[in-house]
Amino acid sequence: MGQLFSKDKVNTGRQAELDLAKFLALIYMILLHCLMVTYGFNNTISLFMQRGIWQLLGGPFAAPVFMFTMGVGMVYSRNQDPNYLIKRGVKTMLLGLVVNIGEFFLPHYLAGKLLGEWDIFPIAGGLLLFCVDILAFAGMSMIMIGLLKKLNISAGGMVIIAIIMSIAGTFLRFRDLGGNVPNLIAGYFIGSAGGFTAFPLFNWFIFPSSGLLFGEYYIRCNDKKRLLRFWPLALVISVAYFVASWFMPEGFLSETHHYYFMTTIDAAFCLLCIYGVIGSCNLICGYLPDGAIKFISKASGNINEIYIIQWFLIPVTYILIVYFIKGVVFSDLSLIIIALIEIIVTTALAAKYKDFKKSK
Length: 360
Fold this sequence. Notes:
Layout: H1 16-38, H2 47-57, H3 63-76, H4 82-115, H5 134-150, H6 155-172, H7 180-186, H8 201-204, H9 206-218, H10 224-227, H11 231-246, H12 264-285, H13 290-301, H14 303-324, H15 332-359
Helix pairs in contact: 1-2, 1-3, 1-12, 1-13, 1-14, 1-15, 3-9, 4-5, 4-14, 6-9, 11-12, 14-15
């Protein structure tokens, strides 16, 4: 059968299955964000929809995949200089602040002015400007990987560090440091109380670091189908764990913050799921026409722009619907329609923005 891994890089350039996995993760996040905003208004969202989006697709199939593929992408990047990663990380953290304006502040004031509702989108006295969303976490991860690279720590060493951090994060989650400001600062690192963090570094660094290690082997893989052949089993085992956790009072995907402050065991099943997702995407890409592959590749390359734009559009869309259609009640169907529109619009706007930047 030959060696599975070569000494040299054999899978250079964009990898369609990784682009598809990343793009699907973004779609699931947009679905989740639409659902989250829907909860602030009158709705008849079914339990099936809540389970499917909030506790499955929008959870382990979204952000963990997103951050893992970011780590893989660092291996494929033309610029792997640690200083570049650190500078890029700082820029990404600042973009996280921009996201918080669209996610919290703009809808807070718009809902207050148009609907007279100031509590649907709380801003915690302005502190939510510094909330740790996924872009803020991505920025911190880039900075940390850049610093570890400066210390000549290998990808395998980074994963070991990430596991130690994850174990620490498991025991430190839900800590209340006695005030909003201390909880906010701690929230960049651990799952502190107060709702100021969704992606603390200690609990989530395991995904980009594991992606980095995976990427170093993936780029040298002589037979991707052979490497990914166990993907159906990985999906069955991981999804079984996720579904079982729905019904546990303190379960990973129960109606708490346990998903965002996941344990090391939870992260292990998420990594198994990611392997399954990449394997299934590799299979799907074999049947997609070239035009679809090109579209997915382009959209995947615009993922930061899409993510930022969607947080400026989704809350505003719901506020305007409620303002112009009095007494509207959001259903499963309306949720899907709004999400599809947001996906199409944000993808198109991100592409136009990228084309505009290139033309300057």
